[in-house]
Amino acid sequence: MLHNSCWIGVANLQLRFVRSNSKGFLSSRSSLWNRINIVSSSANVLWGINNRPTCASAKDNQTDYACVSINSECMDMSIDLGYLCECNSGYVGNPYVLDGCTRDEVYHPVQQKANCSRRCGNISVPFPFGLEEGGAARKLFQLNCTNVTSSTLQFDRGHVVTDIDFTEGVVDIKLTSGLEEGAFRMYRSGEPYLYASFGEAVISLHWAAANLTCQEAQKNHSRYACVSANSTCLGVDSTDCYVGYRCKCMDGFHGNPYVVNGCEDIDECTKTPGICKGICHNDIGSYQCMECPHKTEYDVTAMQCVSRKKQNLLIGIVIGLSVGFTILLFVMSGMLLLRRWKRDIQRQLQRNYFRKNQGLLLEQLISSDENASNKTKIFSLEELEKATNNFDPTRILGRGGHGMVYKGILSDQHMVAIKKSKIIKQDEIDNFINEVAILSQINHRNIVRLFGCCLETEVPLLVYDFIPNGSLFGILHAHASSSFRLSWDDCLRIATEAAGALYYLHSAASVSVFHRDVKSANILLDANYTAKVSDFGASRLVPINETHVVTNVQGTFGYLDPEYYHTGQLNEKSDVYSFGVVLVELLLRKEPILTSEIGLKENLSNYFLWERKVRPIRDIVAGQILEETTEEEINNVASLAEDCLSLRQDERPTMKQVELALQFLLNKRLNSCRTVQANKEEMEPFIMTKVQHSTENSNVEFLSNKATVSSYQPGLEHEFMSSATIPC
């Protein structure tokens, strides 16, 4: 093999073959090469048989005449190199060996390999071309899918295929850089040249199925390429010689003639409207034109047969238009009156709902409270319908415990979440009014802000600030494929913030609030993953001098306080129990109702308390927690959760103690020096040992950094609360 890395001018290049065994003659089974590979960056090599100067002199001495194959011919070289042998037209192979020139029988009309890939990105590669061996009719038709993303098809030499046209038998390609027009040569060992190029920057290649005439190809049915019915054979010629034959669908058919039933009928009547100046009837491979029926004529504009014009056509049109306009006028007038009547009825109904839902009283409360007017707004139904695209189902964020939540965009582009009850029941209505009553008084950074409400519907609508990152439950129990995970630092901070919000609710100066549905799904996370306690539809207002209320049991299974469930007495310790379940969720990353190893449903709190007794804490908490914190800190949080989950309410800590305990752990973890020494004596004994709740002082004070309840008029509030809350 020769390699030439630079341009060298050589007048002659001689290759000398030396026989290794000088005895006897070279037989047809000789190991002499049948081709010579010469690798060069820029060289043209011509070679010939130079033991005789011409074909005529070589034929005179048949003993050493090189063109021994039948169907081969001798050609004199244009320069003084002797002569060459070539297979006759229509034959391929080696003319220098006996029977070396054969007819082209390489084409396979049936795909040799099943389930071959036929797509390169968004490009379909039809038979006889293919993308893998066995998927093409012959090696010359095998393409390479070099880039699925950009849908790049190439021949072996790197030429990019841009189009394959069966109708014209053409493949359009882009030449690789450095090749001139006409330089395309596609060679495969044992196959003829079947591409004839023409064109410019993007050249078009006429291609043939085989180097045979149509008459020769049709004699061998097992190798004949035109397998589709309604296909025909055509010859392919280049500017120099005959290339071979190709297939084409007959007139009136289109498709791929190289596959069975590939040529399909063309419906000329549909494809070419107006092809007939009358009625068009499609036939297989053709179509028929028939005259228009009696008393009709062909309309060039409408491209169909229409009735002939009559003398009274104008009169008919005038009468028809007059009657039509009269009817249309009556219909439109009736629709306008009906619409106005419905609108008036709807407005009256909205006014009735507004009064029923204590709208007038709420307006007085808001107008008389300077702080409340800055945060609470009464919306009209029309405003909220516009904000939610008429409560489009695609705007649904989820279903809460007391209604469907929609995403809305107000006219000032403020993003809000709008809660709308789906069940029309009086207790549901009371729950909504109850939530308005509670949230309109609350101002705390870790409690979801009530932006406003709408009282013009049978079930009031509540408008909150939109919280973009969903709920703590959604993140803790997301699918395993989710890439986002809350760190232990974030979990500890979120728990501290939620505990602070509940402590604020329990210890408000004028009225205490028992949430009654504390769970991770009701702890929302804003853009900065700050906790926002939400969903106050089940909450209860409690006078400051009372410690509990008797209510119908309400809450979520898995979080529900057992003592509250059995006695119906709701107090602040019921929220503490539910918060304890949330702490266990943060530690174990399990849902509040889980399936045991034997397939039974079980409360997470029961599972935790039992496992806490029989196994060390490190064996039951989530692996991520073990990686991010110390066993001492895990034990501290687990002990706090265990105390919150005490079956007896009087053995549980208060939310103030829970918040202080979590705040102490958070500050200690962050190496903060802001811990107040006065609170340390109250926190550390609770963390290290179980709190003696019998000595607890019920009169607690807010920490200095907590927000206070906004000011309001006691008289109006008392009247509104008494009419809005649920009688239980």
Compile the SSE list and pairings.
Blueprint: E1 2-4, E2 38-40, H1 55-60, E3 72-76, E4 83-87, E5 91-93, E6 101-103, E7 119-120, E8 123-124, E9 144-147, E10 152-154, E11 160-165, E12 170-174, E13 195-199, E14 202-207, H2 214-219, E15 231-237, E16 242-249, E17 253-255, E18 263-265, H3 268-271, E19 279-283, E20 286-290, E21 296-299, E22 304-307, H4 313-356, H5 359-368, H6 370-375, E23 377-378, H7 381-387, E24 396-400, E25 403-409, E26 415-420, H8 426-439, E27 450-454, E28 461-465, H9 472-476, H10 488-506, E29 511-514, E30 523-525, E31 531-533, E32 540-543, E33 548-550, H11 562-567, E34 569-571, H12 572-588, E35 593-595, E36 601-603, H13 604-614, H14 623-628, H15 631-644, H16 655-669, H17 677-688, H18 714-724
Parallel strand pairs: 1-2, 23-27
Antiparallel strand pairs: 3-4, 5-6, 7-8, 9-10, 10-11, 11-12, 12-14, 13-14, 15-16, 17-18, 19-20, 21-22, 24-25, 25-26, 26-28, 27-28, 29-32, 30-31, 33-34, 35-36
Helix pairs in contact: 5-18, 10-12, 10-16, 12-15, 15-16, 16-17
What would the keywords be for this entry?
single chain; 728 residues; alpha+beta; Phosphorylase Kinase, domain 1; 6-stranded mixed sheet; 18 helices; elongated; disordered N terminus
